Amino acid sequence: MQQRIRGSLRARAGGSTRRLAPVVALSAAVLLSGCGPAGRPAAAGPTARAVRPLPVSAASLARLPVATTFGTSPRAPRDRHAFAPETGVVVHPTRTQAVYARPGGQPVAALPTSELSGPTWVPVVQSQPGWDRVLLPARPNRSTGWIYLDAGGLRTAYSPYRIEVNLAAYRLTVRDAGRSLGSWKVAIGAPGTPTPTGRTFLLASLSPRHRTYSPLILPLGLHSGALSTFAGGPGTVGLHGWPDPAVFGHAVSNGCVRVPAAALRVLSQVPLGSAVMIIN
């Protein structure tokens, strides 16, 4: 069951409603390289039946690559429609889920319950009876996989939010059900360390324990294509503030998008799993 709540993302579970997307404390320096009810996509047809997955033992699941920002899922299929809109439906595994290359196909990754000390929420980009295809936060960029819905251990919600980054215009816009909540000039990746493009999602919300260049850092489900690592981390690309406003409107970062304080305040209210589209 999906539920749309303006101003937050909420999931119905066990008869109660829980607010999602908490801010968690973690060192972000090791990570970053600088209307109406929810609508799940229609099934293939009224008589379509769900393909059952291949059985996966606990031991086999434990051997699969873990789909986190620190992981790599080399056998996961790529997103072939990287600039298509996302559905707004997001899922959270309450237990580790096998991720398949296709419905009924081979398992290629394991999606854990948590990501960067917060809950894992991933967006749905395609559905068919019994299955959802989701974006994965692991390398390589644009990794996807299918989750079997009847396996249980999943919570579903809907986010009306969309974050848009236009690299050519150096501009970030936040929308709620199509309504603009604000638009700001930002700084983007330098020519040697460009900001990757395509559809992705808000992966985590981190509040650094110690004073840094930003009071809040929002990693995305993307990695730098130029840096395999940054400060000992996986080179995750994110959105964050910057103390010097002179950088806005310029390509100067290691791949992250640097935003003004006003933008960061709005972004702090966007739930995990929400759609992010980066275009050039």
Percentage of residues in DSSP E strands: 35-45%
Number of helical segments with 4 or more residues: 2
Strand line-up across the major sheet: 11-10-9-4-12
Largest sheet: 5 strands, antiparallel
Spans of at least 5 consecutive residues whose pLDDT stays below 50 are 1-27, 35-39, 41-46
Q: Sum up the overall morphology in one term.
A: globular
Q: Roughly how many Å is the radius of gyration?
A: 18 Å
Portion of residues within helices: under 10%
Summed over residues and divided by their number, the pLDDT gives a mean of 87
Distance between the termini: 36 Å
Number of strands: 22
Determine the structural class based on helices, strands and strand pairing: mainly beta
Q: What count of domains describes the coordinates?
A: 2
Q: How would you describe this structure to a colleague?
A:
- With 280 residues, the protein is mainly β.
- The protein folds into 2 domains: 4-19 and 56-158, no CATH class; 161-279, L,D-transpeptidase catalytic domain-like (Beta Barrel).
- It is 5% helix and 36% strand.
- It has helices at residues 58-63, 261-267; strands at 4-5, 8-13, 16-19, 89-93, 97-100, 107-111, 114-115, 118-119, 122-128, 131-135, 144-148, 154-158, 161-166, 171-176, 179-185, 188-189, 198-201, 217-223, 236-241, 251-253, 257-259, 275-279.
- A 5-stranded antiparallel sheet has the order 11-10-9-4-12, with no helix packed on it. Strands 15-14-13-22-17 form a 5-stranded mixed sheet, with helices on one face. A 3-stranded antiparallel sheet has the order 1-2-3, with no helix packed on it.
- Strand 9 (122-128) and strand 10 (131-135) form a beta hairpin.
- It starts with a strand and ends with a strand.
- The model is unreliable at 1-27, 35-39 and 41-46 (pLDDT under 50).
